[in-house]
Amino acid sequence: MEQVVKHIVLAKFKEGVTEAEIQKLISDYADLRNHIKQIKSFEWGTDVSIENLNQGFTHIFETTFQTLEDRSSYVADPAHVKFGSELLPALEKVIGIDYVPNREP
């Protein structure tokens, strides 16, 4: 089975950030895959849970890499750093987690 690394970001946008601004940030986030070769895939979505455990987080972003080294290159890439400087001011709260999926118990 192929090993991958998942980079998960949970985001809660600040009150007052418009839907158009959020959509622009999402588009810019997705566009990173056109500039950073280490990105294997990118997906995003909004919370649809019925458990009410989201703690205000509304958006989730998942970027997949082949290796931990690829993830580290992504984090340091100037395009990612520039995007982060645009995204972070729009967020009230953010959680970032990287993990290697384990399919065994």
In words, what does this structure look like?
The radius of gyration is 14 Å and the shape is globular. It has helices at residues 19-31, 68-76, 78-87, and strands at residues 5-13, 39-46, 59-65, 91-99. The chain contains 3 helices and 4 strands.
Summarize the structure.
The protein is of the alpha+beta class and 105 residues long. It has helices at 19-31, 68-76, 78-87, and strands at 5-13, 39-46, 59-65, 91-99. It holds the Pfam family Dabb.
- Rg is 14 Å
Return the string of H and E elements.
EHEEHHE
Average predicted confidence as pLDDT: 96
Gross morphology = globular
What distance lies between the first and last C-alpha atoms, to the nearest angstrom?
A: 15 Å
Task: Please identify the oligomeric state.
Answer: single chain
Output the structural class: alpha+beta
Poorly predicted sequence stretches spanning 5 or more consecutive residues: none
Largest sheet: 4 strands, antiparallel
Number of helices in the DSSP assignment: 3
| Total beta strand runs | 4
Helix content: 25-40%
For the biggest β-sheet, the strand order reads 2-3-1-4
